[in-house]
Amino acid sequence: MSRTNTRLEPAPDGSDESPDAPDAATPPPPPEYTGTHSRELTSLRGGDHTATRMTGALGLPQSDATHTLIAPLEAGELPNVAAIRGLRLDQLLLVTTGALVIIIVGLLALLSAKTTETALTVASDRFTQRLQAQARELGQTVSHTLALSSATSLRDNNYAFLTEVARSIIADNRNILRVQMFDAESQLVADSDPTAKLGSASGGRTAERRWASAFFNGQPVFEFQEPLDYGSLGGKGVVVISYSLEDLQKQLHEVEESNRAAVRANTVRILQLGLAFVVLAGVIAAYQSRRITRPLGALTGKVMQLAAGDLSARAGTAPGAGREVTTLGVVFNHMAERIKVLLEDVRAKAQLEREVSLARTVQETLLPGRDAVTVGPLRLAGLVVPADACGGDWWFRAALDDRRVVIGIGDVTGHGLSTSLVATSATSGFASAMTLREPSQVHAQMLITALNVTLANVGRGEHQMSSALAVIDVYNGQIDYAAGGHPAAAVFNRHSGQMASLPARGPLLGASVASQFTSRQAQLRPGDIVVWYTDGLTEARDGANRLYGTQRLAAALQANAHLPADALRDALLADVRAYSAGQPQRDDITVIVAEFSPAPTP
């Protein structure tokens, strides 16, 4: 079971000698390790400046701001609007209006023709009924008169006189085609038809008044029958008159022809009137459609100008075109102004993106690469995962001399372009501080003090930074470290399973050039793993807004302590990503892993 200490073993000094302690005056020669450590130190001095950007391999969210936005300064090729087929809007309005008017006029003409025809048909039926009534009345009157006047002659058996009377009636009235008289025994006693045979039976005619439709010589007739009372004991005789319907049919035919002519004339008048309406409606529709579509055509031209890149295109007023067209012009002018402003903003943003990209490139050039570096028994691996295109975190590694390595980490308050510039300046100042003095005079307190002065001068009190620095002797494991407002590095020993830390107190860097800092010393043991980090790691939050925290970091460190430095670094970052899955990265995250694994003493 692991236990946590507040600090590592204190570094041995000259008064506390042990058999295993090397002579402080004459340090022993470096032991032989696999590989050429001189080349490794040289690589540290040269600074592997490969860009250290987090990739999708670890699955951490990337900032959208890393993509440079190019302003659309050129409109590009316009679509071939000439290839668009179909009627123009004014033609469509004209055709639609004309078709609608024609349909309406046609329906009205059809309705009027049907109404006229119905009215004339009703009038013709009434006329026909009236003529038929007149014909019946005339026939019944003639038959009744003839029956009264013929009774005496029939009683006297004066059949010749009756025949003459029948023929005289035919001669006087051309509509009466035949006159017949029958006695009480239904024998034909008189007939206007010379070919008729008198004395023939009537075929069972009854002595009653009636009329019926019949045919005579192929012509339709009305047969009017009237009883003839001549005082016979056998009963009454019968007078039969056949009244021709030819004149009636001729009059009806004339009436029908007149009705059809009236319907035709009325239809022609309605069609002429409808044609006049169609022409008038077409003229009005053409005028109104042009009045409406002309401003739309002008607006279309302005839209094409705007699409071609002419941002000065504006729509004019459109009097009489309707409120919608006027509103469309006003909205188009507003949109054109907005597009102009937005394009200017896009250009400005594109310029800013290019500047940010340049700043990011400079920052990444100054940061070490993500590949692990081995110096003797010490293996180093670090990485910065910015929350924005440019981050405020930084880390540094460099060889101080043939056996000492300097490690630095910092977190400028905030994140973004300004903090990245401050972080870049801090990194440059940190590297300069190492070269201004002899390697033997460089120690953690001097480095952090120089870094504080640089930051205070660059940030002018507006930007502050937490930082932790360490100078490690890669052969005996002595570590000289200092910090200002930065989380203490976590230390875990693979062999004992113990957890410890490298605590160091000090104010935030950059607040004042007069700030004081102290350094502390400790002794690394074989199997020790030191993890420096920024608070962006421990302050990552999950969906319930809970912090990742140092306890989870310690658990992840213990669970993955068997991995080499670079794999352990990636595992810690992956654990943070899994913890805050679905949540945006709120701060820059930096992790440095130092693995101290000296060869066992023979």
From TrEMBL:
Q: Which UniProt keywords apply?
A: Hydrolase, Membrane, Transmembrane, Transmembrane helix
Matching PROSITE patterns, A to Z? Answer: HAMP
One GO molecular function term of this record is: phosphatase activity
UniProt keyword Ribosomal protein present: no
SMART domains, alphabetized: HAMP (SM00304), PP2C_SIG (SM00331)
Positions of region (Disordered): 1-42
SUPFAM superfamilies the UniProt entry points to: HAMP domain-like, PP2C-like
Q: What is the official name of this protein in its record?
A: HAMP domain-containing protein
Q: Which organism is it from?
A: Corallococcus sicarius
